[in-house]
Amino acid sequence: MTISLLPLWERGYRLNKSAYLFSPAAERDNYDRLHSIDYMSMANDAAKAALLVGKNAKDTGMAMTQAASDLAKARLDWRNRRQGVLLKWLQSAQLIAYGFEPPRRMDSQPVEIPATYWTGRVQWDECKLTVQGLEFIEIRIVTRQVRDEIQSRERNDLTTPQAAGRPTVGPAIKTAFTSLQEGGEIDTNASQQSHYPKVRRWLKENAPSLSVPAEDISDKTMQKHFSPLFNELRKSYKL
User: Fold this and answer.
1) Among 55, 129, 134, 208, which is most buried by a count of CB atoms within 10 Å?
2) Residue 135 CB-density burial (10 A; 0-12 exposed, 13-18 middle, 19+ buried)
3) Measured between alpha carbons, how far is 217 from 206 in angstroms, rounded to an integer?
């Protein structure tokens, strides 16, 4: 009995967002506060304060530079601290990571990354891990509870007889969504339906053996598989 890990990967949070998303509310509030501050406004406030106490132009400029430097350091300290906590959780298997071994293809399946591998080089912004000559890309993270829940459901699905009919196009639509997202072609400010032509075009070029020709996939079918991914992406951008 083989359980697909793709549903787990799809449910996970991208590595580059996980330090924030797996932080407690107080830490997320602190992050939001630090990133709501504008560098220029802070520097100007520092300059005004310096002028009020009679500092000269040189000292005023230094105060502006110091204010900007302090803000950058506070942001970096937050990131390093929370990424450090996330690494500990991954190394102790409190959080579980899934990724692909490059190059990723249409039929590629994600793999579960062992907890011991998180001593390797982590490229947070690229969602990538390099360890022991291996490389994992497009990494996403779930909690142990989510992993157990989805794997239990997958086992139940495997023991349930499948209805006869044509194979679903759902997985292909999800793969198209991921590819378009990574290419910067998913605009969460636009409507879902405006993306359907892009998905059909991607499917026509990359999945020519679908059970239903890409141009014949109905908007209803497209919405069923596209909407959950789009809504989750839109929600993550609001965090």
Assistant:
1) 129
2) middle
3) 15
Q: Among all chains, which residue has been given the structure tokens 């630090």? A: 34
Here the tokens at position 25 are 């509310």
- Going by C-beta distance under 8 Å and a sequence separation of 6 or more, which residues neighbour residue 126? 16, 137
Q: Give the integer Cα–Cα distance in Å for 24 and 54.
A: 43
- Total Cβ atoms within 10 A of residue 2: 7
pLDDT digits (tens, 9 = 90+) for 65-106: 777 788 889 999 999 999 999 999 999 999 999 999 999 988
Element housing 130 (H / E): strand 128-131
Q: Are 20 and 159 in contact (CB under 8 A)?
A: no
30-41: per-residue pLDDT in tens? 999 998 877 676
- Residue 69 in tokens: 């430097």
How far is Cα 61 from Cα 43, in angstroms, rounded to an integer? 9
Q: Quick count: other Cβ atoms within 10 Å of Cβ 214?
A: 20
| b (16+ CB within 10 A) / e for 54-91 | eeeeeebeebbeebeeebeeeeeebeeebbeebeebbe
E strands in 36-103: 95-100
